[in-house]
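Supplementary Note 3. Input sequence used for the single-chain structure prediction.
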Amino acid sequence: MTACELPRSGAQGVHDADAEADGPLPAALVAVRPQRLGAARAAEEEWVAEEVPIALEYNGLSHAVMLATPLDLEDFALGFSLTEGLLASAEDLLDVEVRARPNGVALQLRVTARCEALLKERRRSMAGRTGCGLCGTDNLDQVFRPPSRPVPPLPAALSAPQALVPALSRAMRELAAAQPLQQRTGGIHAAAWCRPDGEVIMVREDVGRHNALDKLIGALAKAGIDTSQGFAAVTSRASFEMVQKAALAGMPLLAAVSAPTHLAIRTATACGLALAGFVREGRATRYA
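The predicted structure, written as discrete structure tokens, is reproduced below.
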């Protein structure tokens, strides 16, 4: 197997320079030669996406281990921290170091004392309990985290129903063309930030749909982009977590290529987030 050095326009390449002191990070893609069954042509080399354990450590405290594509990891560290409520703003993250380890990657975040105290309190509440389905959550009261600020209204250019479908359709077309990892593997999700007219201005990719959105949110926060003046488009279904992350990031609209869940619709309605599903082939369904 060989590693693929695949740089992306407007983003860092497959490896993060921060990790050079610890050795190179795993590549985002790996070349394999599988056995094709029932196929007339001989097996050829193809690319598959890498999936790596990513440990998030805050001021030396281990918080979570996620499986993700080892690309845009500083964006992931910031976006995950914001959408999980560990940071109140990007300014709470003082520094992040990406360290390659024999069995994965460690993201070592240096955060403010206030955030460290919050994390320690959360760790104390979880002591002695088993793992759960939602990262960092040990009881039902922690699942639903309303945004600290109201979700902004749709930009004026998207408020008219006749303008919504053309903008969403353009976003999905441009998103499909801006996924180099997906084009190589067929197994990668992506999240895009779009202007009100649907122009895609930023894309992040990952094997996990939640990770792709976290990476996008982190990149937007680092760039200081006003999330009230656009919308997010994702190559997945619209689950509850995706809706909650978009709302917490102050996005007025989440557009998904596939279906929403009922909990996602209820959450979007409660937050005031516009939610569109089945955005494909020049059509869309608005659920909230």
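The mean pLDDT is 86. Residues 156-286 form a domain with the Cytidine Deaminase; domain 2 fold (CATH 3.40.140.10).
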